[in-house]
Amino acid sequence: MQGENDFIEDDYDDEDENTQKDKYLSFFIGKEEYCVGVACVIEVIGMQKITHVPEMPDFLKGVINLRGQVIPVTDIRVRFGMDSLLYNDRTCIIVVDVRDSHVGLVVDSVNDVLDIPGEQVEAPPSVNRHYGNRFITGLGKIGEDVKIILDIQKLLFDDEDTSLDNR
Amino acid sequence: MIENKTIKLDEDLLSFIVESREILDDVEPHLIGLGQRLEKNIPPDEETVNFIFRGFHTIKGTAAFYHLDNVVSVAHKAETLLEYFRSGKETINGSCTDILCQACDVMGFLFNKIESAGSEMDHEDKVKSIIHRLNGRIEVFKKKKVVETSSSSMDYEGFSRGEDRNSKRVSESDVTYGEIGRSTQLFIAEFRSLVHGIEEICVGRTLTGDDRSKMKEILQMMMDGALFLGFDQLGHHVDIIVASLEKKLWADDQQGMVDHDDFNHVFDDLLTTVNRIEQTGWDIPIVSGHGGQDDDPLVLSLSENGKDDRDATPGSRGSWRSLSPPMKDLFFHEAFQCMEHLEKHLNFLREERLNRTWQTEIKNAFHLIKGSSGMAGHNDLELIAHNAEECFEAVLDDRIILDEWDLKALRHVVLEMKETLDGLKKGQSRILFKKAALIHMINQIRSGLSCDEKEDAIHLPDISRDNRQKGGEADKQDGVLEGKEDGGSFRFPLFEADMHSEPERSLIKDEQGRERGLLWGGERRKSERKDIRVSIEKLDELMNLVGELVLAENMVSNNPDIKDRELENFEKARDHLRKIIRDLQDVALAVRMVPISSVFRKMIRQVHDLSMKSGKRVSLKIIGEDTEIDKTAAEMISDPLVHLVRNAIDHGIQKNSAGDDGAVDGRIVIEARHEGGEILVIVRDNGKGLDTEKIFNKAVASGIVKQNQSEMSRQDIHNLIFHPGFSTCDTVTPLSGRGVGMDVVKQNMEKIKGQVHVFSQPFRGTTFVMRIPLTLSIIDGMLVRVGMASYTIPLLSIRETVQVNEERVIQIMDGQEMINLRGHLIPVIRLDHMYGLEAKTREMHEGLLVVFEHHKEMAALFIDQIIGEQQTVIKGLSGYMENVEGISGCTILGDGEVSLILDVAGLLQKARFSEGKPRSKVI
Prior knowledge:
The complex is a heterodimer of chains A (167) and B (923). Chain A has 167 residues and is α+β, with helices and mostly antiparallel strands. Chain A has one domain (2-166): CATH 2.40.50.180. Chain A has helices at 2-20, 76-79, 152-157, 163-166; strands at 23-29, 32-37, 41-46, 60-66, 69-75, 92-98, 101-107, 109-115, 121-122, 136-142, 145-150. In chain A, the strands form two sheets. Chain A has a six-stranded mixed β-sheet with strand order 8-1-2-11-10-9. Chain A has a five-stranded mixed β-sheet with strand order 3-6-7-5-4. Chain B has 31 helices and 18 strands. In chain B, 38% of the residues are buried. Chain B is of the alpha+beta class and 923 residues long. Chain B starts with 10 loop residues before the first helix and ends in a 9-residue tail after the last helix. The interface between A and B is medium-sized, with 22 and 27 residues.
C-alpha cells in the first residue's frame, strides 16, 4: 500500500517536472509578447503598493510586502530602457525565484502559459544589438507568432553595462 | 587494533562532541592558569589538577563508549601524565602544560574530523605524535620514580612493597575495553614464555654478564609490549622489576643467586596481572588487603588506628578482597545512595544551616556509610565517615554551629568519598591520598572556630598548636594525628596547596577574571546546571515566528476595519495580547543570549600561546565575562577578538628586555558591558599605540587617501587601519602583517550591525571598542512620515522631537541648515534632499525635527509627521538590492505596507560626507 503510494507520488513528481519543461509564461510589454520559463515563476499577483527605496537604479521600483516577505520589484519596461507607463488594473507583478531570492517583475499584462518545444526555439538574432537583446535567450515560434524568451538571470543580475550608463 | 571504520553520527554522539568541546574549553584556561602559576613558582593547586583530570577522564570514558579509539588514547595518555601530578609525586612544569594543551588541540581536531568526515581515522600521525610527546614526559617521570623506588628499597621486602605501592597509584582503566583482541592474546602467550625464559636464566644459577644482558633484553621486550598494548600497569611492574634487579642482582660486587621462592615472589604478581588481562582484557591489579599496604607512614598509622577500632568489634569485619560480588554490589548501591543523600542534604543545609532535619539526615547517612564500609573492609571511608558523623553529632548537640566554610569543606569531603567509591567500583584501589587532609578538615569543623580563624589556623606553621585548640574534643584519632605531626612527617597536601596559595589564587583570579572559584566552583556549577541543547535553527525559527506574531498583532490592532471605533472590550483583549507577546518576545530573545565568557575564555589560550611565540610577557585581564550576548553575535566577535589580541601582542606590546627595569609587562584587557541598547566589547592594550605618521604615509602610498594629513583628524587616520589589505608592516610575521585582521574585524561587525572604533595614544596603548546591538531582529521604532513615504527610526537613538521656527535655523553657505538647540548647534538632515524625494513640507515650522544621537554626535531629521511608535521586526532588504546608506532594513506595518528603517549611524555618515560638497543626486 505504502509502496504503491510512493510510486504514484514519484510518478506525479516526474510528471510535474515534465509539465514544467518547455512551458513558458507569456506577458506583454507594450505590443511585444515576452516569455519566461514557468519553472522559475512563483506566482503572479496584482499591482501592490510599492515602497520606494532611495538610491536604487531606476528600474528597481522598490519593495513590496508579499505575505510578510519583503521582496524587491523591478519594472521590466524601465529595465529595457522603455518609458514607464502608469500602472493600471492590468499591470501585474510576476514573482520569480532567482538564485534563491524572490524578485517581482512589473509587466503590462500577463497573457498565457505557452508550450514551446525546444526545436521551435531559435537563437537570438546576432545582428542589431538592440539594448534589450542581451536579456534574450531565444525566440520561440508558435505558428506564425514569435515570442521573445527572456533570460531571467541576466535580466536581474547582469550589470556589465547597466541601463543607467547606457541611457 | 585500529580498523578503519566510519562512525555513525547520531544525536548522542554529536552532543558528546559538543560537550567534550566544552570540557576542553573549560580545561584549557585551567591548564594555562596552572602553567602561569608554575612560572611564578606557585605550587599547583590540587583542585585544578583534579578538575583537568576529570575533564580528560570524562572525555575518555564517553569516547570509549563510542569506540573513538584515537580520542581515547590521547585522553588516556594525558590522564596518565596528569596522574603523576595528581598524586603529588611530580611537579608540573611549563612544557607539560604545553603538551597537555596540544593534546586538547588534537582532541578538538579529532572531534572536528568526526563531525565532518564521520571518522577519526586517517590522522594517525597527528595522534601518534602527540601520544609520543605525552609518552616522552611520562617516561621521564617513570624513570625518576624508578630511581626513587630503587633507592628506597633496601631489601627484598622493600622491593616488593614498592611494587605494590606503584601498582596502586597508577591503576587506571585501560585503552582496551571489553573482550581481548588477538594481539592481546598473542602478547599474553609471549609474555608467559618470556617469564619462563627469565626463570630458566636466573633460577638457581650464578648470573654471568651474558645472563644479565639477556634478562634485561627480555624484560625490555615485556615492557615494550605491555606499553604498546596500553597495559601501563603491567609495564610498570616490569619497569620496577628492572629497577630493583639492577640494584640487587646486577650490582658489580654481588654475584647473587636467585632461588625459586625469590623468583616467584617477583614474578607472581606479573603473572597474576597477565591472567587478569586474559580474563577481562584489563590490567587493573587485584586489590590487596588493607592494613599496611601503603608505606606512607601516615596512612599506615591511620590504618593501624582503624585496626584498633576493628579489635573493638571483632568478627564483624570482612576484607574488601574477600567480599563476594553480590555483597560488593550491595555495598556500592547503598553507598552511592548515601552519597546522593548527603549531597542533596548538604545543599539543603546551605540554605538553612540550622535545619535539624537535614542535619540528622546527614548524620544518619554518614553513619550508614561508616557501617557499610566497615563491613566491606574499606577502612579509609569508614574513618572519614566516622569523623564526619561525630562532627554532626556535635552539631546536633549545639556544640558547634556550621558556617559557610564548614559546608564547603563537608561538600568536599563528600565529593572525595564519592570519587573513591567511583574508583573502587571500577576496580581501582584508589587510596584516599587526601584522607589525612579530609580528616583534618572535618576536625577543623569540629573545632568550631569561626571562618577566619580557621583559615588563619591553616596558615599557622605549627599545626599541632592548632590541633590543641580542639581541646577536649580531641579523641583517639586526633591523638594519632598529633603524634604524627610532631614527628614532622605530616603534610596537609590539600590545604597546603589551597590555603597557602589563597592570595595567589585571588591574584590569578583577578588577572584572568575567573570569578568563579576553582576550588568548589567546578563541581557546584555542574550540579546546578539544568539545561537542554537546542539547535540554533529551532531558535531562529522561534525568533522568526515571534517576529511574525508581533507583526500580526500590529495588523490586528491597527486594522483599518476597526479604526475610529470605540471597542472597549476589544481594546482590553488587545492590550492583554500585546503584553503577552511582549513577554514572549523577551523570553525568545533571552533564549538566544549566552554569556560572553565562552568567547573570552578562548582568548586566555590565545594570549598564552602568542606571548610564548613572540617572547613578550603579556598578562590578560577579563572583565564582565558574564555579560550576555546574542549567540550569533558571540560567534561573530570570536574572530575579531582573535585578530585584535594578536595585533595587540604582535604590534602593540613591546618586547621587554631583561635588563630594562622601566619596561612594563604587556597587559591586555578584554571587557564586555552593556551600554544603552548595545553591548560594548573592548580590547585594550598598553602597547606603543598606533603610529599616526606611518599609517598616513602608508595610506597615501597605497592610494587609499588623497587628502593632506592636516585635513584628517588623528581619529580618521587611525580608522584607516580597517581598510582591507592595509598594513603598515613591511614584513609579514608569522603572527600578522598581511592586513587581513582589521578587515575581518570590520566585516564581522558590519554583519551584526555593530561598529568598531579605535582609540590610540602613543606609548599609552590602543583601545578597540566594538559596539554590538543587543538584539538583531526586533527594535522599538518610531514611525514617521517624510513626503509620501513612512520611515521607522530606532527609538533608542532618538533624543527628542522638537518643532522649531525659522528664526532658530542657521543657514550655512552650502545650504546646510543648522538649528540652535539649547546652545548646541545641530545639523538638520532632510531626507528628501538626501535621497532626492519630493517632500510635502518645506518650511521648518510645518514639520518636526527628530533629534537623534549616535556616539555623541547629534543631528536632527526633518520629518512631516509622527505616525506612531511600535515594535518593529527588522527584515533585511532583499539581498538583491545593495545596501543603501542610511537604511538598515525594513519592516512591515500594520496595514501591510513596507516601511524602511533608518540607520542613524549611516545617516550621520552620509550627512557628514555630503557636508561641504553637496552631491548632485545620481537619480
